[in-house]
């Protein structure tokens, strides 16, 4: 059994033993932001893009994260060195707005942010991703979904509802407009075009989404970042769910209705391109 590692402000311990202060603002306000990156062969896949998004979340939350890019990479490296050499799984890190008494206004400037990390083993099969079953739910989240905050209660509720109904993920929509999954982005293939909602404040700008759009371009598959409806989703030739923890999975069912399966060739091109990129950049081929 591969071990899980925890880290808090420079201290490294087995994850299950890691303790953090009750007055960390993450505990009572969820006042922080995070990233989750796949780690294999000592490589954090897509790290530079995750760092860009992390510092953007800090900026939007006015969270004065004290480590610059190089210093944060050095801390990530300490966790990479603490896991077993054959570790494969997610490396999660979060910054919170420091430790202080509960007070809505920000703490004084001498209070430094806290950095928490976990490395947990998780399998990822880029070549044969399991087709997913989704449920659809109204998106009741706030209007800052572009910020990767640790406040995830609506996403937790939506994902739990999917699991309670024997499904893998919830596709969220505002009225008829599709936004994203509870912890993933949603893309469709429609008449040979790869479509996904625009990266506005209604969705998280997913790294996997971005990679897939770029790969489509490289393979001559047209792309579009314009809103689409639930009706278009249900009638799409293929539906794709993307995230760093599962890469790019096709969808076989939404609300118990069979979907997709009408453009397997284009789907296969995208999946192969993604698997190749992942395996190459993580030194697996
Ligand atoms: N949207 C939401 C709400 C998410 O939580 C995630 C997972 N981090 C994604 C999209 C997918 O983003 P990424 O491809 O960067 O993991």
Strand portion, in percent? 25-35%
Terminal Cα span: 25 Å
By DSSP (H or I, 4+ residues per run), the number of helices equals 7
> What is the 3D form?
globular
Average pLDDT taken over every residue: 98
Q: Indicate the radius of gyration in whole angstroms.
A: 19 Å
What are the low-pLDDT stretches, counting only 5+ consecutive residues below 50? none
Largest sheet: 9 strands, mixed
| Total number of beta strands | 15
Helix content: 25-40%
Give me some keywords for this one.
about 280 residues; alpha+beta; six-stranded antiparallel beta sheet; about 30% strand; globular; binds 4'-deoxy-4'-aminopyridoxal-5'-phosphate
Quick summary:
Helix content is 28%, strand content 28%. The protein has helices spanning 25-29, 47-60, 69-82, 153-164, 207-218, 230-235, 264-281; strands at 5-8, 11-14, 32-40, 43-44, 88-96, 114-121, 132-138, 169-174, 177-181, 185-190, 193-195, 223-224, 238-243, 247-254, 257-258.
């Amino acid at each position: 059994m591969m071990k899980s590692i925890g880290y808090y402000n420079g201290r490294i311990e087995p994850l299950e033993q890691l303790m953090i202060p009750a007055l960390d603002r993450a505990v009572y306000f969820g006042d922080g932001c995070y990233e989750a990156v796949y780690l294999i062969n000592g490589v954090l896949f897509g790290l530079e893009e995750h760092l860009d998004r992390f510092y953007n979340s800090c900026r939007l939350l006015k969270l004065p994260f004290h480590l610059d890019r190089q210093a944060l990479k050095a801390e990530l490296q300490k966790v990479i060195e603490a896991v077993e050499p054959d570790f494969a799984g997610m490396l999660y890190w979060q910054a919170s707005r420091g430790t202080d008494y509960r007070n809505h206004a920000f703490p004084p400037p001498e209070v430094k942010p806290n950095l928490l990390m976990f490395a947990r083993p998780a399998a990822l099969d880029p070549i044969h991703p399991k087709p997913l079953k989704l449920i659809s739910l109204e998106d009741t989240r706030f209007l800052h979904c572009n910020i990767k905050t640790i406040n995830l209660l609506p996403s937790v509720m939506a994902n739990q509802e999917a699991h309670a109904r024997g499904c893998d993920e919830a596709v969220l929509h505002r009225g008829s407009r599709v936004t994203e999954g509870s912890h993933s982005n949603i893309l469709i293939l429609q008449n040979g075009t790869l479509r996904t909602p625009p990266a506005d404040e209604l969705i998280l700008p997913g790294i996997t989404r971005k990679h897939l759009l770029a790969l489509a371009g490289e393979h001559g598959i047209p792309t579009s970042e314009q809103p689409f409806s639930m009706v278009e989703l249900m009638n799409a030739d293929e539906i794709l769910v993307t995230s760093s923890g599962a890469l790019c999975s096709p969808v076989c069912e939404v609300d118990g209705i069979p979907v997709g399966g009408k453009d397997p060739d284009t789907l296969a091109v995208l999946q192969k391109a993604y698997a190749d990129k992942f395996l190459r950049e993580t030194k697996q081929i």
